[in-house]
Write a structure and sequence with these properties.
With 361 residues, the protein is an alpha+beta fold. The chain contains seven helices and 19 strands. The structure holds flavin-adenine dinucleotide (FAD).
Length: 361
């Protein structure tokens, strides 16, 4: 096993900001681009040997490194390869963790495979998608993931975790909480419908697809899936939810906060409070299992943070109230604004917002 900086293609003092969508953070003391599982193992061994923390990095779209940088080893996942295995009316699509997620979605749609079309345009790599069970417009990866191949960091053994073993729920999984830092995802497999009909649960997508061309006039498979992809990409663009170097509102980690899930009793208290102090509007809410999911965007706005709000070098996107953006500032500016929002929401509504993005210092 290669374990010294001289033996590995490891680099020193690599700036991390350009490797993240929000463009923030200092440098990594050590940095290794992992094109093979052996590289990942060697990087982990190197960290152990040097008594340094090891941070896995995918596409950098849900992570904020501190301004001081990371005084350990960053392993940038660069595993590549997409394979399709026929399974009757289904196709199993396997993507290595370093495959760009949206390119994979597009490749599946081109083959007429249905099930992930509404997840078009989400930035980052395929290996990052099971971490927080990414979702958008009524689809989540948990709906189609067959299994996740992982490398256990402590033993360097590869394992296969079936969907039911991944602990998926709203924007979470075992990888994000109970087994945080235990595994490196190396490959994700999806069970997709051959000649798939798009799954549209989201009224905004349905309305826009129908307005462009009636779905009933489109053939199942590639044609109708492409139509949904097109609408999703255009909706995301309007909300600056596509990473675009020409759009300063997309210099973010996407939604900074999760939609809080509260007991029904807490929701009733919130509704009563809002009846007293509010503007007569309803609190936007959705049932979530036995509980209620409250719109974090609504809480942020009603706590006094409108779109386009600016504070030092950070701000709120003009097109999405949950996206905190880097306006030429520092990680500290962004995190200070996040804390200010959290405190104000708590003072006003008694609800603690939970961050979706990972902060590494
Ligand atoms: C403009 C914009 C829009 C977005 N829209 C959405 C959206 O609609 N829905 C949604 O759910 N998310 C959204 N996101 C968030 C983000 O794109 C996803 O969470 C994405 O899956 C993160 O993948 P990544 O490869 O960029 O992970 P990174 O940001 O590199 O890493 C995030 C975390 O995952 C871990 N990780 C990454 N890869 C691996 C791996 N192979 N093994 C183990 N751990 C790993 C990292 O260690 C880190 O803790 C958006 C982000 C942006 C910037």
């Amino acid at each position: 096993m290669l374990t010294t900086a001289e033996q590995l293609p490891i680099r020193k003092n690599i700036p991390l900001a350009p490797l993240t969508t929000i463009g923030l953070g200092g440098s990594a003391k050590y940095f290794l681009e992992c094109k093979t599982v052996e590289h990942i193992c060697a990087g982990l061994e190197f960290g152990k040997h040097e008594h340094l923390p090891v941070q896995v990095l995918g596409g950098g779209s849900n992570i904020i490194f501190s301004d001081a940088g990371f005084s350990g080893v960053v392993l940038k996942i660069a595993l590549k390869g997409i394979h399709f295995d026929d399974d009757g009316e289904w196709m199993i699509a396997r993507a290595a963790a370093g495959e760009v997620w949206d390119a994979f979605v597009h490749a599946c749609i081109e083959k007429g495979l249905g099930g992930i079309e509404c997840l078009s345009g989400i930035p980052g790599f395929t290996g990052g998608t099971p971490i927080q069970n990414v979702g958008a417009y009524g689809q989540e990866v948990k709906d189609t993931i067959e299994e996740v191949k992982v490398l256990e960091r402590a033993t360097l053994q590869e394992k296969i975790l079936k969907n039911a073993e991944c602990g998926f729920s709203y924007r979470t999984s075992r990888f994000k909480f109970q087994d945080l830092g235990k595994f490196v995802v190396t490959e994700v497999s999806f069970r997709l419908h051959k000649n798939g009909r798009p799954t549209i649960h989201y009224p905004e997508v349905k309305k826009n697809v129908e307005a462009a061309v009636p779905l009933s006039s489109l053939a199942d498979g590639r044609e109708s899936l492409e139509a949904v992809r097109k609408v999703v990409l255009s909706l995301r663009k309007k909300k600056s939810m596509l990473v675009d170097p020409n759009d300063p509102n997309s210099k973010s980690v996407g939604s900074f906060f999760l939609n809080p899930i509260v007991e029904r009793k807490q929701y009733s208290s919130l509704r009563n409070l809002w009846k007293k102090i509010g503007d007569g509007s309803e609190v936007p809410v959705f049932s979530f299992e036995e509980k209620m999911k409250i719109s974090a965007a609504w809480l942020v706005e009603k706590a006094g943070f409108a779109k386009s709000y600016r504070k030092v070098g950070a701000g709120i996107s003009s097109n999405h109230s949950l996206a905190i953006i880097n306006c030429g500032g520092t990680a500290n500016d962004v995190l200070a604004l996040a804390t200010e929002i959290e405190n104000r929401v708590f003072e006003k509504f008694g609800i603690r917002l939970v961050r979706e993005a990972v902060v590494v210092d």
